[in-house]
Amino acid sequence: MEKQGSKLYLFSVVLVAVLGGLLFGYDTAVISGAEKGLQAFFMGAEDFTYTDFWHGFTTSSALIGCIIGSGFSGFMASNYGRKVSLAVAGVLFFLSALGSYNPEFLFFESGVPSQSLLVAFNLYRVLGGLGVGLASAICPMYIAEIAPAGIRGTLVSWNQFAIIFGQLVVYFVNFVILGDHIAPAIEQMAEGINAIVNVEALAGDNNWIVTSGWRYMFVSEAVPAGLFACLVSLVPETPRYLASSGQDAKALAVLTKINGEEAGRNILAEIKATAKQKTEPLFTYGSMVIFIGIMLSVLQQAIGINAVLYFAPRIFESMGINAGLQYTVFMGVVNILFTLVAVFTVEKLGRRPLLISGSIGMAIGALGVALSNLVDVPSFVPVASIIVYSACFMFSWGPMCWVLIAEIFPNTIRGGATAIAVAFQWIFNFIVSSTFVPMYNMSHSFTYTLYGLICIFAAVFVWRLVPETKGKTLEDMTRLWKKG
User: Fold this and answer.
1) pLDDT by residue (tens digit) across 317-362?
2) Residue 184 buriedness (CB in 10 A; 0-12 / 13-18 / 19+)
3) Roughly what angle, to the nearest 10 degrees, separates helices 115-146 and 62-80?
4) pTM for this one?
5) Please, what sign has the CA dihedral across residues 283, 287, 288, 294?
6) Alpha helix positions (H), 102-193
7) Distance (Å, rounded) from C-alpha 481 to C-alpha 384?
8) CB atoms < 10 A from the CB of 105, how many?
9) How far, in Å, CA of 291 to CA of 167, rounded?
10) Beta-carbon contacts of residue 376 (< 8 Å; ≥ 6 apart)
11) What gap in Å lies between CA 8 and CA 275, rounded to an integer?
């Protein structure tokens, strides 16, 4: 037996789980580069009119799978284990990538757009969404359950870094796939109804993007997805799940490799002392812990980060800054840098200080944008406000929400409670995304003021109700909520 654990082993195992986070980011962002070519392709259909409604549904159909996948993640994690659940997510990512690349497979004529083909394509996207839903709940859970208490927050925060990095990777991959292919006809087709129905008639590069370019973007995900599915077979199941399943010898072996022999035995004894059975009813530890978990997820979306960032290019355009690749790269760098702030400070400062300070910073950013829509201010004010807002999210609610959801629940209810919390996150992602445009069109200042006020509420919520989990073991959560 080992006297000291192997950090190399721990980090290699966590790296595999983090790859699931990268796929999460990759899958959610791949549509950004492919959607125009995809729209142009289906606007060539002769049996139906590909309207803005259809395009909006198609670009967001994966979200349906995200909600369902996260909802089922608790059942999967509790009954089949964290490792098997991650492997299933990897397979779903892989199948979705192949199906989105070639939705005509077996049933449809290649290259001929139709309403039935659109349905098939969306089903493949929903399949990928199922993988995202599973990965979003189980990747941080897996990392939290295998990591030592002293560095758990740091390692779970790497999952958020991987999500952001995955989005940057797919932007770069899409850029490489496009290469010298340019498609001014795509914008022309997107503006019409179905004015151009003969896609085959488009010449040269334009035709390539409409018929093939978007397909290569989707299938590019098959590479990291296949790698993830294979690598997951090499990592161990989490010791918490093994111990709860009566596999104490296997749990001890994993704990020893990571923590050393003596610490491994002590941790196993602590796990067994707080987990008499595999699962317990959801409200065994009261409703407050479930409420806090759900609210953390709700607030992460209700503060409006996705909607605010989505419309940020308009603010940059008001300064005459190209809001295309330059904007994406710039904001991507900001997001990466400030996510790293969380990674390197979460175990020093704790979860609560990062969340509270981040909420205040986001409130200042959102209210700054609102002010810019009410009074005449220098153009740098709204731009700086968006940057402040984004940066503050990336070191606080971005990673800390996942850290807390992964560690705040007692072992015996973690699977089910995490599933419910993450499902609420995807539901409110949809609610915020779908309500932003109507609110924005009604009143710019009202919209950003509302988000700013929600940020202030989020700071108060964390201050009053969310416990600090820095340095505590997952078994401490059982004692905390039993006492409560």
Assistant:
1) 655 555 545 666 677 788 889 999 999 999 999 999 999 999 999 9
2) exposed
3) 40
4) 0.84
5) positive
6) 115-146, 152-178, 184-191
7) 41
8) 12
9) 30
10) none
11) 29
